[in-house]
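Bumping my old thread because nobody answered last time. Still need a sequence for this structure:
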């Protein structure tokens, strides 16, 4: 998978849940399927975590999840 499978003009990441200092977001792939990636609350540095965010604004976290293998298909 590539970052361009997730970061597109009309694609949004949607907040799923929070647990132990980690936000979980779901995002749709252009190849089909919904994937989950995480955002560590400590990375936000006081920023607002919205329920829905344009995929381009979440690119940092999506790229990190692709690199470390933590981007998983939603069950």
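Sorry it took so long. Here it is:
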């Amino acid at each position: 998978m590539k970052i361009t499978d997730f970061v597109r003009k009309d694609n949004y990441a949607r907040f799923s849940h929070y647990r132990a200092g980690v936000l979980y977001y779901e995002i749709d792939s252009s190849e089909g399927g919904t994937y989950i990636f995480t955002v560590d609350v400590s990375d936000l540095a006081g920023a607002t975590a919205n329920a829905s965010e344009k995929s381009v604004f979440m690119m940092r976290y999506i790229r990190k999840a692709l690199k470390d293998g933590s981007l998983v298909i939603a069950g």
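The chain has one domain: 3-73. Let me know if any region looks off to you.
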